[in-house]
Amino acid sequence: GIVEDEQGEMTATCTTCDGAKQVHPVRRETMQVECPKEQVMIDLLEEADDSARFVAFGGFTGCIDRMEQIAIRQGWKVIRIDGRGFKHEFSDNMTALQMFGAPDLHPDKLCVVAHPLTGGTGVSYSASPTIMYWHNPFDGAARMQSLERGSDANMDMTRGCRIVDLVQLPVDKYILDNLDKKIDLQKVMIDEL
């Protein structure tokens, strides 16, 4: 705060370091709490065993970390795509995505865990029978693009692609409703063109 020094002048003391001119870094720790979304993802992974492919989107690093851990615990190999880049066991990113799309060439169970913006644009996840959203960001364009990743010319037309949104908290519903409005608005704009 502002104080008067010995010479009668007003000076300000830093409220962060109290004038010591050193700030100690804050050490943050992530604590995971029980969440029913975890069991839903486990059940969906079990349902996807036959296809050996699964896609899970999350809007935050914490939920992406958690989905990756769940998939690994359930015996799936993971291709992670988020703001930190790609993470997988393949020689390069192109090979990872090609192997995801080719269960005949790579029969191991593969789960893509991604942020909808970085992992949901310009790639095909049509080998997966399900695309799950653990949590959505407010980005309408990322949602629209990631929704399209499960359907392309290579999609199994008899199986299709199921979209599963995990809604637990009121904020999950609020964000999903907001994204639906953005998608509806885009449809109106395209129809008017």
Descriptive report:
The protein is of the alpha/beta class and 193 residues long. Helices cover 34% and strands 17% of the residues. The chain contains five helices and eight strands. Strands 5-4-6-3-7-8 form a six-stranded mixed sheet, with helices on both faces. The protein has a two-stranded antiparallel ribbon with strand order 1-2. Helix 4 (140-148) crosses helix 5. The longest helix is centred in the last third of the chain and has 23 residues, at 170-192. The mean pLDDT is 87.
How do the SSEs run, as a string of H and E? EEHEHEEHEEHEH
Distance between the termini: 58 Å
Counting helices, strands and paired strands, the structural category is: alpha/beta
Rounded Rg? 23 Å
Q: Helix amount, in percent?
A: 25-40%
Taken as a percent bin, the fraction of beta residues is 15-25%
Major sheet, described briefly?
Answer: 6 strands, mixed
List the keywords:
193 residues; alpha/beta; six-stranded mixed beta sheet; elongated
Briefly characterize the structure:
The chain has 193 residues and is of the alpha/beta class. Helices cover 34% and strands 17% of the residues. The strands form 2 sheets. A 6-stranded mixed sheet has the order 5-4-6-3-7-8, sandwiched between helices. The protein has a two-stranded antiparallel sheet with strand order 1-2.
Helix-strand blueprint:
Blueprint: E1 2-4, E2 10-12, H1 36-47, E3 53-57, H2 61-73, E4 77-82, E5 85-87, H3 93-100, E6 110-114, E7 130-133, H4 140-148, E8 162-165, H5 170-192
Parallel strand pairs: 3-6, 3-7, 4-6, 7-8
Antiparallel strand pairs: 1-2, 4-5
Helix pairs in contact: 1-2, 4-5
